[in-house]
Amino acid sequence: MNTLFDKIWDAHVVQNVEDGPTQLYIDRLYCHEVTSPQAFEGMRSRGLQCLRPDHIFCMPDHNTPTHDQDKPIEDPVSKKQVDTLAKNAADFGLAHFGMMDKKNGIIHVVGPERGLSLPGMTIVCGDSHTSTHGAMGAVAFGIGTSEVEMVMASQCILQQKPKSMRISINGKLGKGVTAKDVALYLMSKLTTSGATGYFVEYAGDVVKNLSMEGRLTLCNLSIEMGARGGFIAPDETTFEYIKGREYAPKGEDWDKALAYWKTLKSGDDAVFDKELEFDGAAIEPMVTYGTNPGMGMGISERIPTLDTVPESGRVSYTKSLGYMGFEPGEQLLGKKVDYVFLGACTNGRIEDFRAFASIVKGRKKVEGLVAWLVPGSWMVDEQIRQEGLDKVLEEAGFAIRQPGCSACLAMNDDKIPAGKLSVSTSNRNFEGRQGPGARTVLASPLVAAAAAVTGVITDPRELM
């Protein structure tokens, strides 16, 4: 019996090239301002139009400032990229949600929340975190700029079929443990290359019990284990989430779609190339201590000592700790924090703001600490205000910024200064990722909130 990955993949095969890649049909192409300009130029130079313009959606997110979006962008490079996307979308007749458009936000937050990303689809974008959309029960993965052009021109892509892996997380998560902690835990066990060459299906009780937001966070981080993508079979949680959303099927189309979506699961006898199982009860709130997302540990643990690191990795391990200013064997609890960032396509959704607010409610942001709270979209911003979370956050001394990728990556104004330590809910802690010389500890919204009100890395369970 086929795996769910096989079912979706096989349903999209246009042709198999002998001893070569598969020509795969693509249901949805998302374009942002950073990886699309050369693709559009290639189309122009060849005199081509997009084959299926109604399947392509464009929006700026990486370069957008998170304040004063109604004014012209000050940074000339960012302005050029954002303006170029608007012009390209207009020239090629594509849907474009520009800055201040109520549908704008981070592309990987907007796709699911607008009902653009649906079960059974193939979804691509010139961005590695496209795996996020796999939470909808779709096969979603990042592609290069030349491949973006390929999809624009033909609505197809040439791809080698990846192997399949199932990761089952069973049991029950403990207090204060979120989907972000689950993902950081998996990376600490598998390393950043442990799923290379695979497409991962997440399963088990823990995954079934995750909210849609939690699933989006988990799938978002698949790429950080080296996986081609990650996804979760759609179920009642998925269908409930999609129903009534703007681009979701309506009426009879909904009934038809739902009947099909209910068939989207791996068979009981499905054979995976690799199977892994983990116990949810073994996971505690996580933090990273190094310069890749796989260098993570439970918040109460100590940084591994050099003798526990394989010999081949000791040089890079020592360099990584040197960059972070940490010592082998020490704890991160109590380390002074300069910046806190809540947001990104990893943790910029409504549930993340609820979690953050639950910790800071009735407390105050530490003086001198800089906190950037950035919704993943205008829809999230609206939900924050509808639920009164903005009041809770403001009373605690926090301001809410405008949507965008913000301090996830140093492509806009929200950069962490050199040497400063940031507790960030984003997805990458590479050297310079949040700004030249910035030091990043990846964590959940609960850990970020605990740091913001104590000024040091703190176990959020103590504040719950």
Q: Any overview of this molecule?
A:
The protein is 31% helix and 16% strand. It has 464 residues and is of the alpha/beta class. The protein has two domains: 1-284, Aconitase, domain 3; 286-463, Aconitase, domain 3, CATH 3.30.499. The N and C termini lie far apart (45 Å). The model has no long low-confidence stretch (mean pLDDT 97).
Summarize the structure.
It contains 16 helices and 18 strands. It has 464 residues and is α/β, with parallel strands linked by helices.
Give a topology summary.
Layout (H helix, E strand, L loop, with lengths): L3 H8 L1 E4 L5 E4 L2 E4 L5 H9 L10 E3 L17 H16 L3 E2 L10 H7 L8 E4 L13 E4 L2 H10 L1 E4 L3 E8 L8 H12 L7 E6 L1 H4 L3 H9 L8 E3 L4 H7 L8 H11 L12 E6 L6 E3 L7 E3 L15 H11 L14 E4 L1 H4 L2 H11 L9 E4 L4 H9 L2 H7 L25 E4 L14 E4 L2 H10 L10
Parallel strand pairs: 3-4, 3-6, 4-5, 6-7, 9-10, 9-12, 10-11, 15-16, 15-17, 17-18
Antiparallel strand pairs: 1-2, 2-8, 13-14
Helix pairs in contact: 2-5, 6-8, 13-16
